[in-house]
Amino acid sequence: MAIKVPEIFGSLVFNDEIMRERLPKDIYKSLHKTIEAGKQLDSAVANSVAAAMKDWALENGATHYTHWFQPMTGITAEKHDSFISPTSDGRVIMEFSGKELIKGEPDASSFPSGGLRSTFEARGYTAWDPTSYAFIKDGSLCIPCVFCSYGGEVLDKKTPLLRSIEAVGEQAMRVLGLFGNTGVRRVVTTVGPEQEYFLVDKALFEARKDLIFCGRTLFGARPPKGQEMDDHYFGAIKPRIAGFMKELDEELWKLGILSKTKHNEAAPAQHEMAPIFTTANLAVDQNQLTMEVMKNVALRHDLVCLLHEKPFHGVNGSGKHNNWSLSTDTGVNLLAPGKTPYENAQFLLFLCAVIKAVDEHQDLLRISVATAGNDHRLGAHEAPPAIVSMFLGDELTAILEALETGEVYNGVERVKMDIGVHVLPSFPKDTTDRNRTSPFAFTGNKFEFRMLGSSLSTAESNIVLNTIVAETLRQFADELEGVEDFTGALGDLIRRTIKAHKRIIFNGDGYADAWQEEAARRGLCNYKTTPDALPHFVDRKNIELFTRHHVFTETEMHSRLEILLETYAKTINIEALTFIDMVKRDILPAVSDFSASLASAVTAKRAVSPALACSYESALVERISALTDSAYAAVGRLETALAAAKAINDGALAAAIYYRDAVLAEMSALRTVIDELETMTADEYWPYPTYADLMFRI
Ligand code: ADP
Ligand code: MG
Question: 2.170.270.10, 3.40.50.720, 1.20.120.1560, 3.40.50.150: which CATH number matches 567-696?
Answer without folding.
Answer: 1.20.120.1560
